[in-house]
Amino acid sequence: MKKITIHDVACAAGVSAATVSRSLNLPDQVKPAVRAHVIATAERLGYLADGAARALASRRSGAVGAIVPTLDNPIFATCIAALQQRLDEHGRVLLIASSGYDPAREARDLRGLLERGVDGVMLVGADHAAAVWHLLASARVPVVVTWTTTGAPPGVPCIGFDNQAATRRLVSYLLDIGHRRIAMIAGPSPGNDRATARVAGVREGLARAGIDWPEEYRVERPYSVAAGRATLIEFMSMPRPPTAIICGNDHLAFGALAAAAGMGIRVPAELSLTGFDDLDFAAHATPALTTVHVPAAAMGRQAADCLVAAASARAGPASVELEAPVMLRDTTAPPPPIR
Amino acid sequence: MKKITIHDVACAAGVSAATVSRSLNLPDQVKPAVRAHVIATAERLGYLADGAARALASRRSGAVGAIVPTLDNPIFATCIAALQQRLDEHGRVLLIASSGYDPAREARDLRGLLERGVDGVMLVGADHAAAVWHLLASARVPVVVTWTTTGAPPGVPCIGFDNQAATRRLVSYLLDIGHRRIAMIAGPSPGNDRATARVAGVREGLARAGIDWPEEYRVERPYSVAAGRATLIEFMSMPRPPTAIICGNDHLAFGALAAAAGMGIRVPAELSLTGFDDLDFAAHATPALTTVHVPAAAMGRQAADCLVAAASARAGPASVELEAPVMLRDTTAPPPPIR
DNA sequence: TTGAAAGCGCTAACAC
DNA sequence: GTGTTAGCGCTTTCAA
To answer: Gap from A16 CA to D3 C1', in Å?
Structure first.
């Protein structure tokens, strides 16, 4: 028993292949009775369309690609989950790749996606290898940049939020409640405009208040619980330790929180801690983590809509700026009185 | 400027299209000098192969599909991350779908993947709609079942672990340290053989010890932090509350942990709690969560290898049983003395 | 080792 | 509304 093609269905239904094709794809161009009969026949025969042939003839694949830094961080998984679900509703499938924060690998993976004929691509951040933009341009495939609102080439829509403003607000809040010695455990900046913007936000917030930000209060670490743990110990072992630590993401903050507990440092009474992402568990940590809520699911959904629109009509894809509110919870409080 | 095809490259390089194709796909069937020249020309022209045409002619797409219940649970995201990475190393791409634990949606999504011509499919669990197995069989596509070692149709390899044995071991441990009133917050059983097996493991462990398991000590809840929270309150409000609660996954356990804290119940002194999955944060919860380690990344990696092997050779794909060790941490201890 | 030619299964003009 | 006819861009026998 060999593969069933559109011809087999056509023969069995007593119509032409074109009519079968139309019954399936352009239902209202075919007489209802015929269409019903064709569809029933296709079903009876267990016909499964050949996507390759379809894509070759119609010049679109119905697939969308996405490249994220990693799927191991739930914040990206959440975005991808939403993207996938929305694409599914549009009858599209999702091709996914992860770069591991490596620009070269990203370019290579993008090539792979493009060769598979994706009708659109979602990227995280605006900072990518030149090859990425070249490939995208020469393949003439719609792109959407997420997680940021700035830095994308002209014509590329962004669906994101303002990373810099978010940490700036965090700093304002900490200053308001009395902190002056604020440190930051930032994420890796190479190829990561979000991490860079978050640092800039802290710097900006401090500068606006006329507060100096000593070099040693700012370190760059991989996004991991272990790094957060180790770095908190470093910070708190300084002769003049910070009273508040801003972490580049929630993983770092969880590590810092655990290390503080281990060192017997009470959070928030003795030390304030903030995260970034608002993962599911942030609200359930003990104490509950003050953090910035990243609208991951919303970005995924809107990216899907944007790409589907761009693929069908030439619906001028507009950029969207989403909210990234500070979630004040229980890891922040005024600093202890100065001794 | 239109799309560059293999013919353009052939012309520019002064060879035939066949030679270009071979230079790219079967490099050692072509004289090194010619090959080098062809590849350079392709590069210079910015040639990007058309996957649809390639797939149509060669009858394989280089894509693998995976359907997971949800990507929003990091345990599946971790598996997918590993699967994707390994496929990437093999030059394959990953098409991903999520069923939301809905068998009908799973069948529909599988159809979508199959129509896109995936060369293999990874499924979670062995309990699927009949349509799923039919589709797979008639499309003659290799499948691999993960997360379990039993229940798959003959000939379908499983790369998983023994869910039942895992919770049985958990129960043995709890019995050993003195617990007799053991409750369970199980996950939704419909279409979920893992959840069912985990309940069976608890039942078996208790039965082996000759201990009765009252109906009211076993409830089924959605896999969410909120459900864990609410259910713990229910359990602890019973006239005769359990001294230990086994949660169907870590999310439920986190919720239970938070609720216990809220109720002023000390864990593990007054109540023992266990999870299942061993998410990143399990080790960093306060107290650190005793749970079953699910080898999500290992399953993803091995599933990738299995599918790639099955697609190229007919390498009899073998089932693999992985370890799912109990991670004893700080949420379990002997029950309080009987008053 | 290379080239010529025949499709792969489907869609999209274009006729009828 | 439906059928006919060309390809879509590539791989792959088969000959040379």
So the answer is: 6
User: Straight-line distance from CA A5 to C1' C12, in Å?
Assistant: 18
> Which residue has tokens 């998983």?
B160
Which of B78, B281, B330 would you mutate first to test chain A, the one with the most A CBs within 10 A?
A: B281
Put simply, the chain B residues between 241 and 260 with a CB less than 8 A from any chain A CB are 251, 254-255, 257-258
Identify the residue whose Cα has the smallest distance to the C1' of C2: B19
Q: What is the pLDDT of residue B286?
A: 84
pLDDT score at A96 = 97
Calpha distance A124→A306 (Å, rounded): 15
The domain total for chain B is: 3
Strand boundaries in chain B, DSSP class E: 63-68, 93-98, 121-124, 143-146, 158-160, 182-186, 218-220, 244-247, 272-274, 291-292, 320-321, 326-327
A-chain residue closest to B105, CA distance: A88
How confident is the model at residue B3, as a pLDDT?
A: 87
Whole-model pTM?
Answer: 0.95
Position B184 in a domain: yes
Q: Taking a C-beta distance cutoff of 8 angstroms, is the pair A195, A189 a contact?
A: yes
Domain for residue B266, yes or no?
A: yes
Q: Is residue B330 part of a domain?
A: no
pLDDT class of B285 with cuts at 50, 70, 90? confident
Separation in Å, CA A213 to CA A181, A210, A231, B214? 8, 10, 18, 61
A21 touches strand C (CB under 7 A): yes
Q: If contacts are CB pairs under 8 Å, which of residues 33-72 in chain B contact chain A? A: 46, 48-56, 61-63, 70-72
pLDDT value at residue B318: 87
Residues of B in Cβ contact (< 8 Å) with A117: 50-52
Instruction: Report pLDDT for A316.
Output: 66
Interfacial A residues in 165-184 facing B (CB < 8 Å): none
Point out the residues of chain A with pLDDT beneath 50.
none
Radius of gyration of chain A (CA): 25
Does B107 share its domain with B75?
Answer: yes
Q: Tell me if A123 is assigned to some domain.
A: yes
